[in-house]
């Protein structure tokens, strides 16, 4: 399966996760702490079972305590901060803050590693970011400061979790132990996270679906494909998530697509295509 197709599937998983979170948290079907814990623990169980079934969960594939702790910490921080921030923020505001933090963090890491930006990449970045802001800004409102900080920290945590994925030798083992570590951290902090428990059957099922399918399987695919991406490509490709979320929302939830959404989505996807095309053209020049 090509890298581009794998990236697309991973982005669909991220978009599905966004919708599941919205259905669970925005409608009050479950509290943020319980949702996060169920999501992470169910994901850890799913990945551990898959690792055992593939008979690859051996000591040789263990990514190491340091990696597991770092991956678990960043994953847990992303999930819990996102859940609590999401409750108080409008969808457009939350997306702008989250993806803005992710983009800035990964672009800085890309530059810090000594990577240069090609001219076509800069144009692509400008188009995709401008299109994203154009898409989300109309639904954005002035955010609560504390919730805004939580969402931005969530974005930074996800960026760090993404960067770690480029360093792990075995994506399956790395993501599994990251989830196990995140589960341990979450269970330790349970008394402080679930003071106001609000559980419904719908909320629990949505959290399990988010953990087992959209998170566990989506993230393991993301870790696999990261080996073939630069941090710039990993960063910009994630701007497609709001676009895919709009399409899924229209198809499954009956939400209408406006001309504004179609135009801005086209600008975003065009910018992403330019970023990926830039490296391909550069590689072609070097082989001549």
From TrEMBL:
GO cellular component: membrane
InterPro entries (UniProt xref): AA-Vitamin_Transporters (IPR050638), EamA_dom (IPR000620), EmrE-like (IPR037185)
Topology class, membrane: Multi-pass membrane protein
Transmembrane spans: 36-53, 65-87, 93-112, 119-139, 145-164, 176-194, 200-222, 234-253, 259-278
Database matches in Pfam families: EamA
The keyword Membrane appears for this protein: yes
Domain EamA span(s) in chain numbering: 147-276
Subcellular location: Membrane
Keywords from the UniProt entry: Membrane, Transmembrane, Transmembrane helix
Stated name of the protein: Multidrug transporter
């Amino acid at each position: 399966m090509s890298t581009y197709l794998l990236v697309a599937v991973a982005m669909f998983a991220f978009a599905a996760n966004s919708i599941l979170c919205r259905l669970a948290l925005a409608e009050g079907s479950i509290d943020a702490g319980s949702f996060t814990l169920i999501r992470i623990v169910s994901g850890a169980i799913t990945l551990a079972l898959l690792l055992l079934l593939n008979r690859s969960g051996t000591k040789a594939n263990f990514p190491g305590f340091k990696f597991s702790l770092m991956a678990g910490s960043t994953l847990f921080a992303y999930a819990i901060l996102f859940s609590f921030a999401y409750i108080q923020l409008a969808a457009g505001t939350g997306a702008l803050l989250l993806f803005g933090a992710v983009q800035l963090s990964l672009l800085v890491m890309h530059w810090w590693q000594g990577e240069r930006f090609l001219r076509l990449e800069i144009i692509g970045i400008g188009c995709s970011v401008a299109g994203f802001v154009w898409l989300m800004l109309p639904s954005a409102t002035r955010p609560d400061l504390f919730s805004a900080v939580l969402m931005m920290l969530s974005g930074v945590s996800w960026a760090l979790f993404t960067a770690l994925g480029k360093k792990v030798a075995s994506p399956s083992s790395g993501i599994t132990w990251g989830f196990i570590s995140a589960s341990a951290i979450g269970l330790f902090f349970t008394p402080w996270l679930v003071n106001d428990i609000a559980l419904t059957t719908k909320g629990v099922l949505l959290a399990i679906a988010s953990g087992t399918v959209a998170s566990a399987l989506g993230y393991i695919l993301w870790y696999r494909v990261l080996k073939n991406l630069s941090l710039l490509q990993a960063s910009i490709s994630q701007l497609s998530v709001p676009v895919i979320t709009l399409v899924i929302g229209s198809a499954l939830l009956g939400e209408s697509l406006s001309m504004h959404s179609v135009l801005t989505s086209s600008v975003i996807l065009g910018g992403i295509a330019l970023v990926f095309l830039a490296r391909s053209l550069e590689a072609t020049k070097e082989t001549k």
